[in-house]
Specification:
The protein folds into three domains: 95 residues, no CATH class; 120 residues, Jelly Rolls (Sandwich); 72 residues, Phage tail protein beta-alpha-beta fold, CATH 3.55.50. It contains eight helices and 17 strands. One of its GO terms (molecular function) is sigma factor antagonist activity.
Length: 308
């Protein structure tokens, strides 16, 4: 099966965005139909985009429309959308199901690369931080503000109510400071201040300020007091206070390319300190000097931490 060319796919995206806007006139609807009837290739491009859109059917139009708009203006996202639409047809939707497909991360409107951390000042005055290798869709439509987290870790300092959603459920943050990390399982929530509630498949759970929660099977469970120092990644720092080595190495692994592994025998060792996230190699060397462990390098990008 031949894929539609980029020009026709771009035109199909333009028409799709127009019709999803809610403001398409009868003349525009007729013009779209006329465009589809121009040739068999035009109709094929439209049908492939339609079938791909059906695979996104559980998304609200408010999320689907910005996704297509991003693809309209961003060549990289347009290529990804084109490839995904073709793959979705070839695989019959059985492999690229909505829950498993990587398309939300690829098409997210705010992303960070491995080792990159970013922040944005939002229209309502809120401040959004993304940790390394994270992807979110940020939607501000009038009084409705939604953050869909697809991957990684976010910290939001909310000046007004925000709905923060992920695959496991959603959190309504009235105001305050909330951190959410996908590990991918379980999800970790930290409400540093303010008011928030969590809803998975069951009842609504009020979150207490100053506490951490684990989300298991969509339900939020109290984990203990929140430690604001866990949010210092926004400043490029990893603060460890008698932290299990496995947790520290896991945080480093999210900041670097390649493989970083550790033996089960060293996972429970405790370490304290303030470490720079922009120099993970330096941190690993410090770990080896501090604890009874050694670093085994298979390559520069494949490191194992083993008992000394």
């Amino acid at each position: 099966m031949n894929a539609p060319d980029d020009t026709l796919l771009e035109q199909a995206i333009d028409w799709r965005v127009c019709l999803l806007s809610g403001h398409a006139t009868p003349e525009q609807q007729a013009a779209c139909l006329a465009w589809r009837q121009t040739s068999a290739a035009h109709e094929a491009a439209w049908q492939r985009l339609e079938r791909f859109s059906e695979r996104l059917g559980s998304l609200p139009p408010a999320l689907l429309q910005p996704t297509l708009q991003k693809a309209r203006h961003d060549p990289q996202r347009r290529r990804a959308l084109r490839q995904l639409s073709v793959c979705g047809l070839l695989l019959g939707g059985t492999v690229l199901g909505l829950d498993q497909a990587p398309w939300p991360t690829w098409l997210a409107n705010q992303r960070t690369a491995i080792g990159e951390r970013r922040q944005w000042r939002l229209a309502d005055g809120s401040l959004l931080h993304l940790n390394s290798n994270s992807a979110v869709d940020l939607l501000e439509l009038g009084d409705q503000r939604r953050l869909q987290v697809h991957q990684g870790e976010v910290l939001i300092e909310a000046a007004s109510p925000w709905l923060i959603a992920c695959a496991q459920g959603r959190c309504l943050l009235q105001e305050g400071q909330l951190q959410l990390r996908l590990d991918p399982q379980p999800v970790r929530l930290s409400l540093y201040r303010g008011q928030a509630s969590w809803q998975g498949e069951g009842a609504l759970t009020d979150l207490a300020a100053g506490h951490d929660y684990w989300v298991r099977d969509t339900q939020a469970q109290l984990a203990g007091p929140a430690d604001i120092d866990r949010s210092r990644w926004q400043q490029g720092l990893l603060v460890a206070k008698q932290m299990p080595l496995a947790e520290l190495l896991g945080a480093l692994r999210r900041q670097r390319h390649g493989l970083l592994r550790w033996a089960p025998q060293v996972a429970a060792l405790r370490i304290s300190g303030v470490f720079p996230l922009d120099d993970t190699e330096r941190v690993l060397q410090a770990v080896a000097r501090t604890l009874p462990v050694r670093l085994h390098y298979r390559t520069r990008y494949w490191v194992s931490v083993e008992p000394a």
